Structure formats: C-alpha cells, structure tokens
Amino acid sequence: MKDQHEPVSLDEYVLRAIPNSYQYYQANLEIPVALAAFQANRTRDGTGLSVFRESCFLDSAQAPSIVAHALPKRGDYYVVRLAVADLKLLSLTVLPDPKQDQPLGHALIPELGYIQYEKNKPKAKEVQRELAKLASAPGAIRFIPIASRQDA
User: Fold this and answer.
1) Which of 13, 5, 6 is nearest to 88 (CA)?
2) Is residue 64 within 8 Å of residue 117, measured between CB atoms?
3) Which residue among 50, 59, 71, 123 is the one 20 to 30 A from 117 at the CA level?
C-alpha cells in the first residue's frame, strides 16, 4: 500500500467514478463510456479531474467498491480503472491530492481541469474521446452499480 502523499508512478492505476446516468454511460454503444465521464465540473474540478490511486488502498480488489460507496450517490457509480502509463501517453499527469472528505488516494489530472478545458476545448474533447475508449475497454469497468439505469 502506497502513501497517498507520494508522487504517482507510471506502474500505478487510477480509478474514476462515473455517475450512473445515461449521459455518462450507455451499455448498448460500441464505446459505452461517454466523453462526459471525463468532463470537468466548473465547481468541483477547477484545477483537475478527480481520480483515486488504487495502490493507496489496503485491498486493491475492493478499491472500486469503496470509491463508489464513499461518494455522494453511495454506490450509484460505475468505476473504471485506468493505467497511469496510458494517461502519460495522452500527455496527462496524475498528482496526489489527498482530501479529508474523500477516500484514500485522491489525485488530480490537472490537464483535465475546468480551467484547462476552457482554454482548449477541441484538444480536451480529443483527450476525453481517448479516455472514453480506454474506460470502455474489456476489463476496465471494475464496479457496476446494482441499480443500473440502462433499462430505464
């Protein structure tokens, strides 16, 4: 288990929580994870998009469930696992950003923050598209909400 204050290394994985909503995930599509899953929120993601470092959890197999249940909608999230090395190939960095009110290993991807998004929307959309592909790859989704709204 890594200390959440240590720098993020290329051999790590991060988890991204995606709200259980048709806007973010559509199981019937070739790429079910939508670009919106990596869209920064003006209020919450000004300086970077939130992710969680899998290596900071005692039991990495339980980390996706812990993340999903610790967030405001309590388990109503898909949680995807992304390799930091893949993020680096997209010119993204992951910086430790421990928070008292968040699960262990909170980190930010500064290049995907709202401020950066506003500066270069076309580039941001291109990166979001690649992240959606990575998040939709076989095995990337590590937690599926029980009350999936895909049939609604």
Assistant:
1) 13
2) no
3) 71
